[in-house]
Amino acid sequence: MTQDRYDRGMQVRRMVLGDAHVDRAEAAKTPLDQPFQELITEGAWGTVWASDRISLRERSMLTLALLAATGNFDEIPMHIRATARTGASQEDVLEAFQHVAIYAGMPRANRALKLAKQTFAEMESEEGETP
């Protein structure tokens, strides 16, 4: 593990996913999955997401499209929630999923859009709640 890349990855991960999400993930970490969590933090967040070659908004759109196209639906709600921090709008998400529909199939785009609608509704509901 490269400590600088890990530290940068943790910073970007917190910026995109929020402290609450990362704190929950860190608290749930066990000796079994610690190496995997380090790999994600260093590789995905410290290398790919930390690159300044494209914007976080564009990364959100790409990530959501790839998750949908490959049928990895479990992470779509997490990345929909991240759009609040990356600047990807609901319209951006729709555009990404329309590409999925054409290039990877209607059923995958349809399922991804259903998850996005549900997650955006939850986010709007949470904004209206008082602590």
From TrEMBL:
Keyword annotations of the record: Lyase
Enzyme Commission number, as recorded: 4.1.1.44
SUPFAM superfamilies assigned: AhpD-like (SSF69118)
Molecular-function GO terms, alphabetical: 4-carboxymuconolactone decarboxylase activity
Pfam families, per the entry: CMD (PF02627)
Enzyme's top EC category: lyase
InterPro entries xrefs: 4CMD/NDH-1_regulator, AhpD-like, CMD-like, Decarb_PcaC
Domain Carboxymuconolactone decarboxylase-like: 36-117
Coiled coil: none
Stored Gene3D superfamilies: AhpD-like
NCBIfam families to which the protein is assigned, alphabetical: decarb_PcaC
Protein name: 4-carboxymuconolactone decarboxylase
Species the sequence originates in: Leisingera daeponensis
Species lineage: Bacteria, Pseudomonadati, Pseudomonadota, Alphaproteobacteria, Rhodobacterales
Name of the encoding gene: pcaC
